[in-house]
Amino acid sequence: MKLFKKLLAMGLCAALVLSMVGCHEKNETALTINGVKITSALYLSALFECDTEARTKVDESKQSSSSSAAATSSETDYLSEKIDGQDYSDYVKAQALQRCKEYAFYQKMIDEGKLKLTDEEISQANSTADYYWSYYSSYYEPNGVSKETYKKALLYSYYSNAYFKSIYGAGGEKEVDSATISKTLDEKYVLADVLTKTYEDGATDSTKAALKKTFEGYVTRLKKGEAFKKIYEEVNGAVTADASEGTEKPQDSLAQTLGASDTSNASEDFDTVKAMKLGDVKLIENTSGLTIYVRKDILADKYYLNTMTDSVLYLLKQEEFEKTVKEKTADLKVEENGFAMGRLKVKNLEYPSQQQGTTDATTTTTEQ
């Protein structure tokens, strides 16, 4: 569950030669899926997202299969690559079509009143879109994706999450029991107080040795029972208490969660800290600096169970959920607008580094 999307278009024939993908009429229908109209704008949003994900997949494959330095993304001819046995463009188009099928699937349930978001969730989605648009508009706008389309696509990800929780969450048809959630939280995450100091650029061996000696002194003091907060403030300055109201807070504001390798906040130190006993103190040194961990009990503070249940549910059920949605959307009737789809091609997608030299042309907005 991941996701954000966007759109606008470049005009003028000279620009169209370089950016044909960005030209489409307002509200033009590219696909009709199960009676739900998918605009060219929304399809382009899905196509661009799936292209960026496919590029990442190619880059990761190259890095893992090569002992030498992998080619940079600017050197890779993605269109000549294959993913899972498919030509690159075919793979991206198939992924984009699947995403649009899911949009149509959720839209049908929305129209029938079977899937809803709270006002708070809608507000959160809009705020998230507003925030990220300032970063991603330069990617989406030249590819025909406006801010409003970006928001619409993002909302579908929130509806997807709502559908997921309607199945596996509290009261869902396949509700995951609290004991399983607690067990998985404890297995996949570890809680610790963390004190880190990064080596400064150009730090000498003697400087590093002096810092290590200081940190070893902190470890000795912690093992003797001195409060972690006191030592933390010696290094980082006074900690300001969170005075905000209405939100749940952890008992220890300095504690951090470290995730196993298959979580969204995976830590290279997870296994080491997980092997520590509760209350144990350990100093870890790596090439970037020093870190002290004080192991804590993640289940002793209900804050983590209350705020991380969704993350745990996804760890347990995301693959099953994705399979379920794919099965439910497999036979949806798809009708293409051949004229529109003929222009919306993977090879025409633009990235900021490709847009230089096209800015002198007059531009017009063809979809908002």
- Let me know the number of strands: 9
Query: What is the subunit organization of this protein?
Result: single chain
Q: Order of SSEs, N→C?
A: HEEHEEHHHHEHHEHEEHEH
- Within the largest sheet, what's the order of strands? 6-5-8-7
Can you tell me about this structure?
There is one protein chain. With 368 residues, the protein is of the alpha+beta class. The protein is built from eleven helices and nine strands. Helix 2 crosses helix 3 (88-111). Residues 1-21 and 356-368 have low confidence and may be disordered.
Identify the notable features of this structure and list them briefly:
four-stranded antiparallel β-sheet, 9 strands, single chain, 368 residues, 48% helix, disordered C terminus, alpha+beta
Quick overview:
By secondary structure, the chain is of the alpha+beta class. It has helices at residues 13-18, 40-65, 88-111, 119-140, 147-168, 178-188, 205-223, 228-236, 270-274, 302-329, 338-343, and strands at 29-33, 36-39, 82-83, 86-87, 189-198, 255-259, 281-286, 289-296, 334-336.
